[in-house]
Design brief:
With about 325 residues, the protein is mainly beta. The chain folds into 2 domains: about 110 residues, Immunoglobulin-like; about 210 residues. Helix content is about 10%, strand content about 40%. The protein has 4 helices and 24 strands. The strands form 6 sheets. Strands 10, 12, 13, 14, 17, 21 and 22 form a 7-stranded antiparallel sheet that branches. Strand 18 and strand 19 form a beta hairpin. The chain starts with a helix and ends with a strand.
Length: about 325
């Protein structure tokens, strides 16, 4: 009511200018719905990574869409977009930005792996997942974190991964902390083994799936149809959180950071997502690597004191994620 009376009382020219100002303020206060597409066929690129360049970022959903709020991120003027198989792209953010097109990267397209089903005799082998139910010895997954584990060929024979066993802790043992429903969307990705460290991405098809509060201890993921064959020098398999899902299983724009007042000013702290990931003792050193997607140039680091000497997990020896697998091993 107040705005209406104020506008009506202005001169016609001033009134028009005032309305434009009101519109612009309202526009920039709202989120922009932006879509990421392939520059060749304009098809959406699902689950692309969008970095804001200051340690913050988000992911597109399965339709390549994400929301950006100028009011929420007033100091951000550029977005950095990436997705496997496409060249990275930096774009200026303004009110006209509705679509971001990525160009296929020829160097990556030429390396796409095509694996035909293998015939002949094989044996089924299993690497047991290592887990526990202690929530105080669990990794708190965030959307800026990725954890990778090395798998090697079984007895140096041709080996296919048919299932992945992912240790999780849905907190069912802790009623006061485990209340409420949730569904979190994860992504499985693959990397070369470069002298014991995750290297270049291997362009197997990413697997995107969700885990809810009904699951606990070990989540079984069937990957037989993906024809995931382990290279001679091994393969790193990673688990990455994309965010929470809505009732229809679609990625939602959930709050990824919370603001905390500190002596150094307001700090943005990553929000942790459920379920938790149990880290265990007793596995070989340097078998688990982690990285922050929007910080440190995406550099992989072994999970030890050099990564975070203050980590309670490291201090208590819980330094490895005990991902397991089932294999088909050919004679």
């Amino acid at each position: 009511m107040f705005s209406f009376v104020l506008v009506k009382s202005l001169q016609p020219k001033m009134r028009g200018n005032f309305i434009v100002v009101i519109f612009l303020v309202s526009y920039f206060g709202l989120s922009q719905d932006i879509q990421i597409v392939d520059s060749l066929d304009r098809s959406p690129i699902p689950f692309a990574t969008i970095s804001f360049g200051n340690g913050l970022g988000t992911f597109a959903d399965e339709e390549g869409r994400f929301s950006f709020s100028k009011r929420k991120y007033a100091d951000i003027d550029s977005l950095f977009v990436s997705s496997m198989g496409f060249a990275d792209k930096a774009v200026k953010i303004d009110s006209t930005l509705l679509v971001i097109s990525l160009t296929p990267a020829a160097s990556q397209l030429s390396e796409i792996i095509v694996s035909a089903p293998k015939e002949g005799k094989f044996r089924s082998k299993k690497q047991k997942a290592e887990t526990h139910t202690d929530i105080f010895a669990c990794w708190l997954p965030t959307v800026e974190s990725e954890v990778a584990v090395l798998f090697e060929r079984f007895e140096k024979r041709v080996t296919q991964i048919s299932k992945l066993y992912l240790p999780i802790n849905a907190e069912s043992q802790y009623k006061s902390k485990g209340k409420g429903k949730f569904a979190t969307i994860f992504r499985i990705q693959y990397y070369e083994n470069q002298s014991g460290v995750p290297g270049n991405p291997i362009p197997y098809e990413n697997i995107v799936f969700s885990i809810d509060e009904k699951q606990d201890k070990v989540f079984e993921l069937d990957v037989l149809s993906k024809s995931l064959f382990i290279p001679e020098n091994g393969i790193f398999v990673s688990l990455q959180v994309l965010g929470y899902a809505d009732d229809n299983g679609k990625l939602v724009d959930s709050k990824k950071y919370r603001e905390v007042k500190t002596s150094r000013g307001i700090q943005k702290i990553s929000t942790s997502f459920r379920p938790l990931l149990p880290f265990v003792k007793g596995l070989p050193n340097e078998s688990t690597f982690v990285r922050r997607i929007f910080l440190n140039n995406r550099k992989w680091q072994v999970f030890d004191r050099n990564y975070n000497k203050n980590s309670k997990l490291v201090q208590t020896g819980h330094k490895n994620y005990g991902m397991g697998a089932e294999f088909k091993v050919w004679e």
